[in-house]
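Section 5.1 Outputs to date
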Amino acid sequence: MGAVEIVPASRAHIGRIARRMREIDRLECAAKGRPDPACALRYSLVSASFALVARIDGSPHAMFGVTPFNLCEGVGRPWFLGSDEVYRHPREMITLGRDLVEIMLDSFPRLENVIAACNDRGIRMLRHWGFRLGEEVQVFGGVDFLPFWRDARV
């Protein structure tokens, strides 16, 4: 297995990640109004304050970043869309993810978003990255989502 490398995201990564996107990520995107994975990635990339790509053996497998939500209150929306391959590198993704979440928190003192309640791997990753999950279900496009958040340490 190759090492995970983090690089700045670009439009050139979109097609390859979209073709490999996990079914649960596709479901989440569709439930939130973006049924085409490439469209969801393009939207996420252009709306992000910053976006990065996880490459494995030189090939892009995930794109993630943070999008401004409420600048007055310092709230950003973190997001992560990718293939099953990134989850085959849990130690690297946990370590890299923790560092990247800290960078996001430098720009946004509060990070919050929602995740599909059935996205077990994603939920485990969020917990490893220090996010808390709520229990109040929110429904988008017929899919149950749970809120998650993390605040910068004061």
